[in-house]
Amino acid sequence: MSFFRNIAHRLSAASQSMSVARRQLGVAIVRIVFGGVTAVLYGLHFPQRQFLWGSDAVVTPADTATILSATHSWTLYSLFPSPLGGECLYWLGLIVSLLFAAGLFVRVTPLLFFVLTWSLYQRNAFALDGGDNLLLILTIYLMFADLSALSLDRLLFGPRREKNFAWLSGMLHNFAVTACLLQLAILYFDAGFYKIQGHVWSSGTAIYYILRSNLFALPGWGDYIWRSAALVTIGTYGTILFEIMHPFLMWHRRLKYLIFSGAVVLHAGIGLLMGLVWFSLTMIGAHAILFDDDEYLRLLKFMRAVYGNLNQAFRRPLVMESHTFDPTAAAEANPSAG
How far apart are CA 39 and CA 58, in angstroms? Predict the structure, then answer.
């Protein structure tokens, strides 16, 4: 009987542990990055919104309908094909992205953010840079997470109080976090092992061809890299090594810091050298979910301590000792003066 009681106790403890929402700060940072990046894209393309997504866009509604039929997809822009409809959807998407980033009405805005962002991308798939795939997939998972941390909702209305279904909310949140982590692992596993099957990657020359492309290249530092055989080889094999290690080391308590650093270096290089800035910000922001709340709190405590020490050092008054002038001592110190 004690055996079954012990099993029941362990199951109860595991269930209770799983119902406590974890990594709330991490998913909040992902929310801020995703919403912020999308809002900036709306703002940057605002003057060209009719050319890219309007009723008379470069990709006509008929072309979009053909693509959607072939991919079995949908977009709200097809339901409201008039110029006014497209204009309203664009403004609504911009507003929802800002609300999502700010964390206002977080129970509703994740769903609206996904629907409107999906509709925008499906209206003109040629305006994408690759980061939209991860952004949309993770947003689906984030619908089930508690996104109230670092939000206006918590600032204005206080923390959530869910007495009856708090355990269910916590479990859904943790499953959403796990799904996001698994998605990152699958993404880099697939990317790494796909690369090693290509000739230019296995031969160590892929970075050369990437930086020499006219489609994805910015003049400047890229020229110094592709002219160096050593840098090209290091960059090519380093990318493969990082992507293959990523799915396995991201779960380790300490080695995940190395993975995060590698992600920052890799995607910052992609953003600077290839011009895929928003793709890079999306990929780096998604890695915020690797860390626990305690790790973020320790980082915040460390930054406060550093700020306090620097502030104290700069505000410390300059203390000078006062001395009474003694002519005899002065004469002894400088005999030639006599």
Answer: 22
106 found inside a domain: yes
Does some domain include residue 141?
A: yes
- Answer yes or no: are the C-beta atoms of 141 and 176 closer than 8 Å: yes
Contact between 293 and 23 under an 8 Å Cβ cutoff? The reply is: yes
pLDDT value, residue 85:
93
pLDDT per position as a tens digit, 235-251: 999 999 999 999 999 99
Q: How far apart are CA 50 and CA 208, in angstroms?
A: 37
Q: Whole-structure pTM over 0.90, yes or no? A: no
Over the stretch 146-157, which tens digit does the pLDDT of each residue have?
Answer: 999 999 999 998
90, 51 Cβ separation under 8 angstroms = no
Angle at 198 between CA 195 and CA 199, to 5 degrees: 135
Q: Evaluate whether residue 131 is within a structural domain.
A: yes
Task: Map tokens 């996104």 to a residue.
Answer: 147
What is the residue range of 293's domain?
A: 20-311
- Residue 54: exposure state from Cβ atoms within 10 A (0-12, 13-18, ≥19): buried
Count of domains for the chain = 1
Q: Is 222 helix (H, G, I), strand (E, B) or coil?
A: helix
Distance, first Cα to last Cα, the chain? 105
Who's near 151: CB < 8 A, 6+ residues apart? 28, 31, 102, 103, 104, 106
For the ranges 77-81, 127-131, 217-221, the lowest mean pLDDT is seen at: 217-221
In a domain, 328, yes or no: no
CB 119 within 8 A of CB 89: yes
With residues binned 3-state (H G I as helix, E B as strand, rest as coil), the percentages for the chain, rounded to 5, are 75, 0, 25
Q: What is the CA radius of gyration of the chain?
A: 28
Question: Which of 118, 101, 92, 127 is CA-nearest to residue 285?
Answer: 101
- Residue 92 makes CB contacts below 8 A (sequence gap 6+) with 116
Tell me how far CA of residue 314 lies from CA of 70, 317, 321, in angstroms.
65, 8, 20
Asked whether the beta carbons of 243 and 192 are under 8 A apart, the reply is yes
Let me know the angle formed at the C-alpha of 18 by 16 and 23, rounded to the nearest 5 degrees: 125
